[in-house]
């Protein structure tokens, strides 16, 4: 019997799951990969930094999966809105939510609503041309930006704010962001961390890039660094990252003086409030020390001037009506990917926003094993489902404007044609233009 699988979300977690389903069942499976956007690849398109094109290259692997006969892309359809989860359950044997974690975790601090304070989902979405954030229009006319968090997203944001136009050559940063950055007045980017060098979440390759920026120089206060011998207990990746911080602390002032932008690491500083009247003017932080890995406040506070604040402190998934959700953890309630028999979660929707793109591959294979287990025990029932034929009938009755993979290839072609010199593409940043481009 042919098995019908619906995957909700066409990012890395979605396509690795589709690949795993193919490997497991070959011709005996049909997979529909749904996406709200008319374009595939989720975070590869709208999350991965535009100047990290080599990482984006992984989408070629997803394309191989997407082009196979038993997998199809169903774009421009929002599950939970255009079609309910209950309706999908009638049509497919199993539904896998690979919806990622598209919302910013709130800071939960006074002043968070001041103008020019953004979460990283919004800010990254802006420079990556996500239709939801294309109109964000951050004001880059002030001199000082504060980036909250010491993870790889904070590094992406700090680097994007620091690069020269020439350094964006070969990237697919969207024109509206490049235009704004070209006239940016930001000359200091303070990266704020509530804990210390041994607790950073930044990986060595990404952190090392800060050493090679044309007009920006990283600065670490040597007093924040623990004694070098204490690095010995760290796992090798983190030890290497801390090594980079040590190199930043050792950059001589005269070398730094030649750079227009300072990238200042402010560690042991926990944000307590955003200061300003209408627009943000500063971030008040409390000095901390780290005890047993936790930040402990000292009561001493100070204000870091800020004309722009980007909080890069993690993400949450979106609940979908009819699917159990763990509000506290901000992801689907699941046991190793199984929400209930028939409903599964994978990637960030399963485990929260951690790990690299590659982490989603074993995740996808593991969830397919869970589905195979549930099929074998009869937990998913033995009635033949209609799968894609049933979905097509529903979509036609509801007049849904489904975007296919073939349509996406036309959109992609138009984006490639519109690219600046040396750039791979110029993305459409609104849904209407994407739909129009498919012809
Ligand atoms: P992350 O790695 O979890 O880092 C989040 C940072 O925010 C941590 O430093 C955390 O500090 C801090 N933070 C959290 N809540 C805070 C609060 N309320 N106040 C102040 N600081 C707070 O998250 P991410 O940077 O968003 O990255 C998400 C995932 O994507 C990670 O796995 C990352 O490696 C991956 N990613 C990879 C790349 C790449 O490989 N090039 C690029 C981007 C993202 P504490 O540790 O003290 O909680």
Q: Quick gist of this model?
A:
The protein is 32% helix and 22% strand.
Written overview of the protein:
- This protein has 439 residues and is α/β, with parallel strands linked by helices.
- Helices cover 32% and strands 22% of the residues.
- It contains 16 helices and 19 strands.
- The chain has helices at residues 12-25, 43-46, 53-56, 59-66, 85-91, 120-127, 152-162, 175-182, 204-208, 236-249, 253-257, 348-351, 360-376, 387-397, 405-417, 431-437, and strands spanning 3-8, 29-35, 71-75, 94-97, 103-104, 117-119, 144-148, 188-192, 216-220, 261-266, 269-276, 280-291, 294-305, 308-311, 315-316, 325-326, 331-332, 338-340, 343-345.
- A six-stranded mixed sheet has the order 3-2-1-4-19-18, with helices on both faces. It has a six-stranded parallel sheet with strand order 6-14-7-8-10-9. Strands 11-12-13 form a three-stranded antiparallel sheet, with no helix packed on it.
- Helix 1 (12-25) crosses helix 13.
- The protein is globular.
- 46% of the residues are buried.
- The mean pLDDT is 97.
- The structure holds NADP nicotinamide-adenine-dinucleotide phosphate (NAP).
- Residues 107, 148-154, 156, 193-195, 199, 201, 203, 206, 271, 312-314, 353-356 line the site of NADP nicotinamide-adenine-dinucleotide phosphate (NAP).
